[in-house]
């Protein structure tokens, strides 16, 4: 991924993903940024990505398509957890077990390295950092696919 694109993405993340102590805000904004990168992964394999926008795909559908096109083995399970938690938040004002659900998402990302956060602030910082890493991974995959060009895409279809 060219440096200008990397810098542009980093500036977008810094601007849109808050350094907040509110895990709900971080999760909701992070979910949107992840979804944006899932779309980019899929669009990188399309001749006309505008047709994707018309399809009005859900996060879960975008995740499955991106898995089919780009792999995503390293992030898929944790992104499923992220989406389930986001959907729970969208339909409930309060989530009594929010901390344990956030921990489940964080464990799904890096189970071997997971350390139980001591504070809510630490958990939210871990959430933000994990989202940034996952956004970057997805951006790298979509950028890599874009730079492979049509030759590789057509070879896969054959």
Describe this structure in words.
With 158 residues, this protein is mainly α. The chain has one domain. It contains 8 helices and no strands. Helix 2 packs across helix 5, helix 2 packs parallel to helix 7 and helix 5 packs antiparallel against helix 6. The longest helix is centred in the C-terminal third of the chain and has 29 residues.
Low-confidence stretches: 147-158
Q: Mean pLDDT, rounded to whole units?
A: 87
CA-CA gap between termini: 27 Å
How big a fraction of the residues is strand? under 5%
Radius of gyration: 16 Å
Helix content: over 70%
Output the structural class.
mainly alpha
Shape: globular
Main sheet: strands, sense, barrel: none
Overall tally of domains: 1
Order of helices and strands: HHHHHHHH
Given the structure, what is the number of helices?
A: 8
Extended strand count = 0
């Amino acid at each position: 991924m060219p440096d200008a694109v990397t810098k542009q993405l980093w500036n977008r993340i810094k601007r849109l993903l808050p350094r907040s102590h509110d895990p709900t805000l971080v999760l909701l904004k992070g979910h949107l940024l992840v979804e944006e990168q899932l779309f980019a992964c899929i669009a990188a394999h399309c001749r006309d990505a505008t047709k994707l926008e018309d399809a009005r795909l859900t996060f879960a559908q975008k995740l499955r398509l991106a898995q089919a096109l780009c792999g995503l083995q390293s992030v898929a399970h944790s992104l499923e957890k992220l989406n389930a938690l986001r959907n729970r938040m969208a339909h409930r004002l309060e989530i009594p077990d929010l901390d344990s659900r956030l921990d489940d998402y964080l464990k799904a990302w890096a189970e071997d390295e997971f350390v139980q956060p001591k504070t809510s602030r630490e958990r939210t910082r871990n959430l933000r950092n994990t989202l940034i890493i996952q956004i970057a991974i997805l951006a790298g995959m979509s950028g890599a696919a874009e730079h492979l060009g049509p030759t590789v895409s057509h070879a896969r279809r054959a």
